[in-house]
Amino acid sequence: MTSKDDYILATLKILIIGESGVGKSSLLLRFTDDRFDVEMAATIGVDFKVKQLTVDDNRVKLAIWDTAGQERFRTLTPGYYRGAQGAILVYDVCSRDSFRQLDRWIAELDTFSTKMNIIKMLVGNKIDREDDREVTRDEGARFARKHSMLFIEASARTREGVQIAFEELVQKIIQTPALWQNEQKAKENTINPIDDDNSNGSGQGCIC
Asked: Rounded CA gap, 202 and 179, in Å?
């Protein structure tokens, strides 16, 4: 018998997108495993992790997809936008070019997303390198307001802002029932012969 504490409100698909080298995989690793790997290699194709998160007394299961930022992998990613309820767009506060490229990423998200009201969170990463900063916090905040996005600055290295970025994104998704309620009801009415016995922890896989 499933207790109230074990009840999963919804399974949410979250995308992490942005230019190569901005720290997408490091943010994901910090959030799911609370680790930081200085020598983490660039993502090839798409990596994913699974993690449960409780926000406002609601427990959800997150399937988080980390996409490659390199141009040569662009053809691999369109299908992974399908069905996503949330997207984290990442730029490096020490790279003006990664900030300029955000318009392209938003255009791609708007093109391939199958949910018109997908929740977007803008994350300015690497604030631990303040001396190398090229993009101000105010610039990031203005860009986020322009595109109706949530916004936070963070550091995967120091943990600052990472947890709250995911929590605020999930909170906003939960507050938008049209994003997830119908799909959740469909899943509850479907018998899945393969259940994930390890859903209380984080999972990892790679599709290349």
From this structure: 23
| 3-class secondary-structure state, position 179 | helix
- Scanning the structure block, which residue is given the tokens 């997150």? 62
Q: Hey, what are 104's tokens? A: 């392209």
At 32-76, the pLDDT tens digits run 999 987 665 454 446 678 999 999 999 999 999 987 655 545 555
Q: What is the largest CA-CA distance in the chain?
A: 55
Closest CA to 181 of 1, 12, 19: 12
Domains, the chain? 4-88+100-121+160-188+200-207 (3.40.50.300)
Tokens of 183: 């799909």
Q: What is the pLDDT of residues 161-170, one digit of tens each?
A: 999 999 999 9
Residue 147 CA: distances (Å) to CA of 71, 103, 124, 136, 142: 23, 10, 15, 17, 9
Residue corresponding to tokens 């947890």: 163
Sheet holding 10-18, edge to edge: 150-153, 119-125, 86-92, 10-18, 58-67, 46-55, 203-207
Helix (H, G, I), strand (E, B), or coil: what is residue 113?
Answer: coil
Q: For the whole model, what pTM was predicted?
A: 0.81
